[in-house]
Amino acid sequence: TESDFMCANQSYGFMFFFVVLRYAHGDLSYSVQEELKRGSVIGNIAKDLGLDVGRLSARKARIDLDGGDRQFCGINLRSGELFVAERIDREEHCADKPSCVLKFDLLLENPLELHRVSLQVQDINDNSPAFPKDVIKLDIRESAVKGARYRINAAQDADIGKNSVESYTLQDNAHFVFNIQTTSAGSKYVELVLEKELDREEQQEMKLLLTAVDGGSPHRSGTVVIHVIVLDANDNAPVFTESVYTAKLPENSPLKAVVIVVSASDADEGLNGDVTYEFSRLSDKSQKLFSLDQKTGEIIVNGAIDYEEGSRYEVIVEAKDGYGLSSEAKVIIDITDVNDNAPVIYLKSLTNPTPESVSPGTEVGIINVQDRDSENNKQVRCSIQQGVPFKLVPSIKNYYSLVTTEQLDRERVSDYNITITATDEGSPPLSSSKTVQLSVADINDNPPVFEEQSYSAYVTENNKPGSTLCSVTARDPDWRQNGTVIYSLLPGEVNGAPVSSYLSVNGDTGMIHAVRSFDYEQFRSFKVHVMARDNGSPPLSSNVTVSVFVSDVNDNSPQILYPTPEGNSFMTELVPKAAHGGSLVSKVIAVDADSGQNAWLSYQIVKSTDPGLFTIGLHSGEIRTQRDISESDNMKQNLIVSVKDNGQPPLSATCAMYLLISDNLAEVPELKDISYDEKNSKLTSYLIIALVSVSTIFLTFIIIVMGVRFCRRRKPRLLFDGAVAIPSAYLPPNYADVDGTGTLRSTYNYDAYLTTGSRTSDFKFVSSYNDNTLPADQTLKKSLTDFSEAFGDCDSSPEVGTVALLQVANYVF
Ligand SMILES: *[C@@H]1O[C@H](CO)[C@@H](O)[C@H](O)[C@H]1NC(C)=O
Ligand SMILES: *[C@@H]1O[C@H](CO)[C@@H](O)[C@H](O)[C@H]1NC(C)=O
Ligand SMILES: *[C@@H]1O[C@H](CO)[C@@H](O)[C@H](O)[C@H]1NC(C)=O
Questions:
Q1: Domain 449-551 classified CATH 2.30.29.30?
Q2: Could you tell me how far CA 125 lies from the centroid of its own chain?
Q3: pLDDT in tens, 302-336
Q4: Three-state secondary structure call for residue 94
Q5: Which of 149, 386, 397, 410 could be 440's S-S partner, Cβ–Cβ 3.0 to 4.6 Å?
Q6: Spatial CA neighbour of 647 closest among 541, 573, 552, 734
Q7: Which of 417, 419, 433, 435, when mutated, tests ligand 1's pocket best, judged by the most ligand atoms within 8 Å of its CB?
Q8: What mean pLDDT do residues 213-233 have?
Q9: For 344-441, CATH number?
Q10: Where are the beta strands (DSSP E) in 442-510?
Q11: Which intervals hold domain Cadherin (predicted)?
């Protein structure tokens, strides 16, 4: 797959060109004595690399030892000092290698940075020279000549250089001197050289103390006792077939497997020719792994051979004959690697949880892969499972960055289990995998979204304040408070008042309640905006329109415009005596503020003086004679008309209509019977005196006006049509559907009288209404201008007087 990469050393250089790496070239090298106390400071890494000490902690600076889990060194994140974290024993790590270097990585993140640190471990003289055995037995023939040499295995000192064995001292004696030799294989041994011949009869045995001293300061020493036994017969030492044997041994070889067979031959016969083998000088490690068959010289596997623990062993084998004469050979055993270690994946760092806002290509983790094998067995390929928005980018050495490949979205996937697999190149290859759990942290990136584009609420008028109209719902997929939705009304005005005086919204549930009772006659619908906001910071919001429709309820009774129901002046209709059946007499005009059926009015005569005489149009309100008027009919006719709307339940209003069957108001002796109002009689009688005086003058003017009018011979025009002129301002604003009921457009041919309701004085205000074709709307629009126009046709001065007089009369009456 794409994300497969070679982890091997060879590709590092190649990677550096392509991967965004912050590789600092500064390799650091420190030197430290072994066996230092814990906490001893080795050096200051921050200073040496020029790093900002304050950022070490944030950058997660740490020390990673190659392929091991022990931490010999630590880094003080506050001071940047490298210190000893665990006992460092040079002999453990490097045995007899002349130079002992521990290598580790200094790792920094953000950006990822790697520095190689080498730690040179210096030897201290902490080991004494030691001989393989405490006692060395030497059998020497008394016939041995001066100059004969006897080999003795050298003392070993685990320290190196100056601290290893430097000199030997042999106890003073009469027969031997001491000599140091080096074999062809490079190992040292010491010899005793016979200086003065032995005499068995004189001395059968002797014990000599040999001391080895190292060059350290202070000196350390080790001793061995050389036990010399003087023999009678001649002897030859055994001789190995080779001075150095080499063997290759694959790791994990089974127990008892033969590594190599050494063999030495002895020229002597019998007991003197019997050669036995044994290890001389054997490290503790080797001792556990190998054993030697004393008789056959076979070196046998005696423990678990692990290449990773040690790849080369050197052992010295000694061959001895029956009399104790011996010689040595070196055996070098090279262990060959077997692919027995699967790669190990270490998660070195992980940004968990990772915010969903990180841009593609952001490093969220660092992974390290190690394989303890060598060569091909150590080359590792890493891959990441398909279908996750992450990839592995090879970084420094065997480090990989875990990088996002696309924008994360917590609302879609909130957790990832990322499986990383590492496979080595051995045969058969070994692999291992590791699952990294990564959570995505929320960012407030989704505004609340209303479930609907707009909401409508229907409410009948006169609702109770606090009643629920509807509810809005918005969803926000973010986490916790980032997804908690709070509702509120956006400020605004309805009919000039703030929306909050009409509606309220429950912030938690989105329920919308009416704050007041609505009146359909005031407004039929209005719109408000509701906002949904989440609780994130910064918060996100969206808004939606809620339309409220108020529906009508029959809560307005019909309103009668004509005849005017109240006031102390009322209209009396004059019915000509000659009126035929079906003549239009008057009209009841009513309106209803409701709408539709609630405003559909019907008229009915509920009570009348003569039930057979008048009839009313059910919907027109027109009052007509039902038959011809006869002489016998009562002159004064009263009608009570009821106006009813069509609502459920219906509402109604009534009015009284006064009709006078007469051709002339003057014929009527008194109208007082018509009047209901008796209370004002006293007042009016006081006014009579004033009236009589004024009316005389007034009538004179009227006669003048009439005279002027007639002299003009013009077609008479409407002078005053108060009976039907309904000022438009009188009607409610939404008064639109009164056609046929609220207007008067039929042919009228009667006189209108303004009566005062006074007992004794009547005033006839005359105009012949001949303009039959006058359309209704014009009638309705008649205004004062029309009057002045009408008067204006005559001389100006009397007209002014007339109007003034009219006003006086109105005032008086
Ligand atoms: C990830 O693994 C954990 C534990 O193995 C499991 O509980 C979880 O459901 C897994 N998540 C996904 C997204 O597969
Ligand atoms: C909400 O989003 C903000 C950033 O927009 C983030 O810092 C915070 O952690 C989020 N809160 C939760 C509860 O996830
Ligand atoms: C309401 O939403 C519209 C778009 O949906 C936006 O343009 C407007 O600014 C919002 N109004 C307020 C007051 O947030």
A1: no
A2: 63
A3: 999 999 888 889 898 999 887 777 888 999 999 99
A4: helix
A5: 410
A6: 552
A7: 417
A8: 86
A9: 2.60.40.60
A10: 449-450, 454-460, 468-471, 474-475, 485-489, 493-494, 497-498, 503-505
A11: 75-131, 132-240, 241-345, 355-450, 451-560, 575-671
